[in-house]
UniProtKB/TrEMBL annotation:
Keyword Endoplasmic reticulum attributed: no
Top-level class of the enzyme under EC nomenclature: oxidoreductase
Matching InterPro entries: NAD(P)-bd_dom_sf (IPR036291), SDR_fam (IPR002347)
EC number: 1.-.-.-
Organism: Nocardia aurantia
Gene: ucpA_1
Family: Belongs to the short-chain dehydrogenases/reductases (SDR) family.
Keywords, ordered alphabetically: Oxidoreductase
GO molecular function: oxidoreductase activity
Protein name, entry field: Oxidoreductase UcpA
Length: 289
């Protein structure tokens, strides 16, 4: 066994991953499984679930995949019961499900706010309430990882309620982390910025949807992201593997920012030929050069 495997202690542990068949979720499930973690996935996308099932089986991984809606309390608690029956332990929970659409706040309705809170926040409460007693009962501690977003850490015009819901996940995690710290249960967030996935692709103007695809262009992305490239799904799954592992045993109530530096740059842009500024150069605005 190598240094990482021994220090990480992931082999033989059990993880629940909601939204595990999506863009980031699949990478998270695959990388946890590659480290010997037995994975239980809940996802609403039946086709994606079947594809993931086939891939995990082909690689000989022990996994439980259920198609269902994380917003339905019975479905979510059924997943945890299935984990109890199959493996009798729970070490890690990764809450991946989330999503949004672009609209000015004043153009949105209470129905839309409710939908955004349900898909980004409320299931996280329920999943944590199901996970913590199981982790306590196991007596080995545990790790809960919530996938949030850079938009939980800055203003996000056009995404007010999404941003608020993800910020609520961050604050909830911080408090819960303190409440369950004596049980050695850790809660942390991973806050990506731009990682092309089918979902993100739709929001960025792929598949016939409206929007600017500047972030898919090497010159465009270099303006906004200090490391001058989009995120890759493994940039996120690497963080989750670390947080699930014993390498992070003293880390709780905090957030990792795998974003190529955008959280740090916070509104500063690297304009071609002009360099860093926290505003667009006038000649670019006026099309003078
Ligand atoms: N991709 C990015 O650039 C990015 C950036 C910041 C934050 N995020 C966050 O990362 C998470 C995953 O994003 P992604 O890009 O992989 O999106 P995605 O749409 O590919 O993944 C979400 C997964 O959740 C599943 N899902 C949706 N609603 C569900 C429900 N009600 N019940 C069960 N499963 C459901 C989807 O089928 C999908 O497989 C989200 O929480 C998103 O807010 C992504």
């Amino acid at each position: 066994m190598g240094w990482f495997e021994e220090r990480g202690g992931l082999d033989g542990t059990v993880a629940v991953i909601t939204g595990g068949a999506g863009g980031l979720g699949q990478a998270i499930v695959t990388d946890l499984a590659a480290n010997g973690v037995r994975t239980a996935v809940l996802d609403i996308d039946g086709e994606a679930i079947e594809q993931l099932r086939a891939r995990l089986a082909e690689d000989g991984h022990d996994a439980l995949l259920i198609q269902g809606d994380v917003r339905d309390p019975d479905t979510l608690s059924g997943l945890f019961t299935a984990v109890d029956e199959r493996w009798g332990r729970l070490d890690t929970l990764v809450n991946v499900v989330g999503g949004t659409f672009r609209a000015s706040f004043t153009d949105t309705s209470p129905n839309a706010w409710n939908a955004l809170l349900r898909i980004n926040l409320l299931h996280v409460f329920q999943a944590c309430s199901l996970a913590v007693p199981r982790m306590r009962a196991g007596g080995r501690g545990g790790s809960i990882v919530n996938i949030t977003t850079i938009e939980a850490h800055r203003a996000a015009p056009g995404y007010a309620v999404y941003s608020a819901a993800k910020a609520a996940v961050e604050q909830f995690s911080r408090t819960l982390a303190v409440e369950v710290a004596p049980d050695n249960i850790r809660i942390n967030n991973v806050a990506p910025d731009f990682v092309p996935t089918p979902n993100m692709d739709k929001m960025a103007g792929g598949n016939g949807h409206s929007g600017d695809r500047a972030m898919y262009d090497p010159e465009g992305v270099a303006v906004a992201i200090p490391m001058a490239r989009p995120g890759q799904v493994t940039d996120i799954s690497n963080c989750v593997v670390f947080l699930a592992s014993r390498l992070s045993t003293y880390l709780t109530g905090t957030t990792l920012h795998p974003d190529g530096g955008t959280y740090a740059s916070a509104g500063w842009f690297n304009w071609p030929g002009d360099g860093w500024a926290n505003h667009a150069p006038l000649h670019l605005i006026r099309g003078e050069r």
